[in-house]
């Protein structure tokens, strides 16, 4: 694993590092803390060892749950995945129309998986008839109770891990707001070459502002060591089917989702709101996004930028357009 990490960090890249020079007077933005004595380890061996620790490893019960979810997922080279519920049904129809129009004609040997988080019976029937996808259900009786708070997105790492069990090449996760461009094949090739693609725009806030301290404690990390790193968005990413990616990123992410002290340490619905008058460290929590940000930053340290998706500084980028208001209430009719 360590040799793989070193090789990934020594490869050529067309991405540029984020040069953070600002002080922390504006705590929202990535900044250089003056009084932090802790840093992310610069030892690849230690970073790998930490992420392979027993507390971040799926146990037999966890694996049974993920296998249960993956049972109905068809095996294929590339698996696209998303999730929806009744209140996002119209947005999902619009997104699926985009998939059918842009992705299906261009990507060979792919499957599309949609996780049902609470569709009505009529919506489910229409979706199964028209989406050209595999609809699966989240077994709420088999997951921790906080999974019912859909806004926490604790289901997302588990869904991605379940899809990875059936993907021969890669898994692409997307929220309903993601609209692909005709450069999709180039994006998949990029993910295959680099191992992953994550959304890490320069304009994003830093990680500790939108991550509760309990999550840092679970990972054995000091929040101030992450102040100069932008948080990732988790609405779009691609992960290659390799032991390295699965074991050092996806498994810790899924394990954290199943541990309340990791992904939801004393959290409530109020922690979702990050738009508050006073900006301060740990002011809110981004759940799946917070955890993925910590894992990938811990793993790649200052070299995380290598795996950022090009054009992710704008919502109309090289590969996708993000449109959170797009709806199509009749596509599945």
From TrEMBL:
InterPro entries per UniProt: DUF1647 (IPR012444)
UniProt xrefs under Pfam families: DUF1647 (PF07801)
The protein's name: Uncharacterized protein LOC106052196 isoform X3
